[in-house]
Structures are given as C-alpha cells and as structure tokens.
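Students often ask why we bother predicting the structure of a whole assembly rather than each chain alone. The short answer is interfaces. A chain on its own may look different once its partners are present, and contacts between molecules only exist in the joint model. In this exercise we take two input lines together and write out one structure for the complete complex. Read the inputs first and try to guess which parts will touch.
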Amino acid sequence: MARNVSNTRKALVTAVAWTIGILIFFPILWTILTSFKTEAEAIASPPSFLFFDWTVENYVEVNSRSNYPLHFMNSVIISIGSTLLGLLIAIPAAWSMAFVPAKRTKDILMWMLSTKMLPPVGVLIPIYLLFRDFGLLDTRIGLVVVLTLINLPIIVWMLYTYFKEIPGEILEAARMDGAGLWDEVVHVLTPMAIPGIASTLLLNVILSWNEAFWTLNLTAAKAAPLTAFIASYSSPEGLFYAKLSAASTLAIAPILILGWFSQKQLVRGLTFGAVK
Amino acid sequence: MATAHSRSAARLMLSPAVILLLGWMIVPLSMTIYFSFLSYNLLMPGMEEYVGFLNYEYFLTDPAFFAALFNTLMLVGGVLVITIVGGVALGLLLDQPIWGQGIVRILVIAPFFVMPTVSALVWKNMFMNPVNGLFAYLAKAVGLQPFDFLAHAPLLSIILIVAWQWLPFATLILLTALQSLDQEQLEAAEMDGASFGNRFIYIVLPHLSRAITVVVLIQTIFLLSVFAEILVTTNGGPGYASTNITYLVYAQSLLQFDVGGGSAGGIVAVILANIVAVFLMRMIGKNLEA
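Now the answer. The structure tokens for the assembled complex follow.
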C-alpha cells in the first residue's frame, strides 16, 4: 500500500533536506572553491562565492614547492599495501571460520574484535620504541605493518559476514557433480566471494587512507602520508588558505569518490554486521 | 560436513591471523605494563628502575589527569548527543520521499570521508579563525564581535569539528535501520489516530534502539581516541583546556619523554576503553547467535 503524499509536502521536505545537505557539505565545497582562488581572494572580506578569478596556480604551487607527489604516493602505497596484506591474511581465516565452524569460532571472532577496542595510546610507547630500535620509524613498510594489524579485525569480520551468506548447499551440489577441491574453490566459491572481498577492500582502503594516529606518530618526512603532510599546515603555513585548500582537496578527492561507492558496505563494515 | 582433514586445514588457514593479532596484543601491551612500573625517561637512558605504582600515583593525582578525564567525557558525551539527535532527525528526514534523495544522501555522508587533519584544519582556519574565518565575517556582517573559538572555547570547537565528522556515520546507520521499519505498522497507527509524536515514541524509537546502541558504542570507542583533531588545532591548550586522555599520554611520552608515566596513562586509557568494550562486545555477540 503506497502512501499518498501530496506534492506540496514532498516539495517542502525536499527543500529542507537539500538545505541541510548543502549546509553539511558546505565546508568541503568551500575548501574546493577556495583552492581555486588567489591567496588574496581567499581571505578577502566580503568573501566571494563564485565570482572570482579562477586559478589553478595553487595546485601547481603545492605540487612543485612541496613534496606533494611523494606524500600522495605514500598514502597510496600504505593504504593499498596494508589492505592487500590484510586480505591475504584474513581471507583464509574468515573462510575457514565461515565454512568449517568449530566450537570456538565465535570466541575467536569476539576476541579478534576485542583487539580493535584496544586504544592506540595503550601500545604507543612500545611500538614507537620497537620501531626506533628496528629502524622502522618513518618507513612505509612500518606503517603498512601497523595499519594491517589495526584493521585486520575489521577485515576478518567483514569477510566473515559476507562468506557466511554463501550457501553451503552449493558446495555439496558441486561435490555431487564431481568437482574436486580445486574446482570448488576456483569455479564455485571464488565468484560468489568476490563482491564481499571487493567491498571489504574498498572500506579498508578508506579507513587506512584517513588513519591519523599512527601515521602522525610514526612518520616524519620520508614516509609521511597525506594525513601527516596536511598536519604540517597547522604551522604558520596554514595561513595560506588557498594552498591549504588545494592540498586538502587533492587529499580528500580520491576517498570522497571511493566513499560514495561504498555507502552500504560502510554500515555493515563499521558495525561488524550488527546493522545491515 | 567437516572431516578431520578439513578441520586441520581450517586451523592452518586461521592461524596466521590469530598469531599476528595475539602478538600485536600481547607483546606491546605487556611492554606498556612493564614500563608503567619503571622510572624510565628517554632522555636518561640506562637509569631505569622499578618504582612500583609510583607512576600510577603521579598520573592519577595529577590535576592534568582530571582535566583530561573531564575533557574526554565532555568530548565523547557532546559528540554523542549531537550525532544521535542529529542522526535520528536526519534519518527521519531522508527516509521521506524527496526529489534527488541520492544526491542529498551523498552530501550528508561526505564529511565522514574527509581525513581528520583536513577537516580540523579547514574548520580551524577557514571557519573559526577570528580574523579571516567565515564565522568572523558572518558575525561582523550582523554587527557582532568575532569570537575566537579555539582560544575561548577550545573544547566546544573540537566537539563541533568531531561531531561534523561523525554525524554522517550516525545518520547512515540510523537511516539504514529506519528503512527496515515496517511501514504498514506506522500506517495502522496513523489510521488509529496516533500523532506523529506518539508514533515516534512508541514505534520508531523502540525500533531504532538497537541501532542507536550500536552507534553509541562504536562511536565511543573511536571518540575515546580522538587525537589528530586536537594536535592540529589547539595542541591540547590553552593549558589543558582541550587535552583528552589520549593526547595527555601522547604529550607525556613523546613530548616529555616520560616513558614510565606515559605507560601508566596508557594502561589507564586501556581500562577506560575496556569498560565500554565489554558492553559493545555483548551486543555484537548476541547478534552473532541470532
């Protein structure tokens, strides 16, 4: 039974929703707009909204004056590297728990989750000292390892909830048809598991890209990803609003786009399957 | 049909993840516990000695600890109130038929994908700055004195920034929960003459209670560890006005090099987080059985 909603009411709700949506989005929009202004226009009073001399000078400047491409690459390598490494470890684990559940599977899952509840400051000092002693401070490999470990519980959990939805009967049917273990894995399970793995990958790249505790504490210059690079604008350089905006826009654009594709998985991944 | 063979294969597949997480949890955590009983400063290597609970005594009686504990609670509580109330309202709004719903949803969710250092710096410089910020301009436009947010209300400013980042998360989850609400039940109540307020209190809110609990618990875990937003805006100041426990531990260990004291603080933070975690785990565990 569809409810009859008058168009007036719909128009009103639409207007309110759009206003609020634009207000919430406004800081991002303002950052993007400011990135195309000159420094003088960026702090002009009254501020100009659309009618200013659009320029891409800030983007050129950010790329040439700082080591922007290096930090961007660090972000890419660290987020994708830690995600792939995490998947490599988590896929077999989630797979075995979903398809060959044992008595203690639930306990293991809950315990994995509990490691995620450990506040990072609880282990900051040992990790910092170990990294210092092993020469891992300010290295990409060090950050890849740490981010893999802190996101591993989420990866295992997400994969587990997806794998759980693959019906076990389908395996038996394949077995009846004479499929060996290899055929089972390659032709039956893998195609069904790929969407879940893809969503997990997407969400985890987003989380790692934006991670800002370990990246800030364990890097200095060489391996600093964008989170740490942008933080350096908190010094007097932050007064250059247009350049800050250009650097920020470049840093958030890829993830905004990825994020919009992953809305649904976000709910599932971040609530550990408690809300679907 | 798990055979003994497949079971041992399963154990083999599971073990790398278990061993790594076990190592990640036990090795550094026991080191932190060990350090917390030492007098250990990075500037004086080789002078470590066992001091019992002295670090805890210092940390827990330090006025900075009380300030930080208070700030942590205000930060978590403030952000939770804003995001839950705002999230329920936005969820209800976006659950209505509107034109361009997909686009509005994208606009609302966007802040969640902005990295913490970017959102904090954008708010700090381009909105809250008392000279060049947009808020200062708006204040002047209506004849008010510009307000220096981060100097005079540092904690509130950080609460607003963090709430902006987490509002999308709460909205998205509550909206997802709302969409599974039985519409016919609502219509029946409406036909029986239940007002909007009554429908909300007796049907919508009970339906949302589980999702709200999940949002509260998960956000609390993350909000207890807010760090980057404080680092790039106020550095915990002025004084300790915007220092939370996470930032206090960071400052003590990596700025003052007091490994012993910082470790004691880290353990205190772990205990606080565990209190929340117990509740969260119970919720999720229940769901796992269902």
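Check your guess against this: The two ends of chain A are 24 Å apart (CA to CA).
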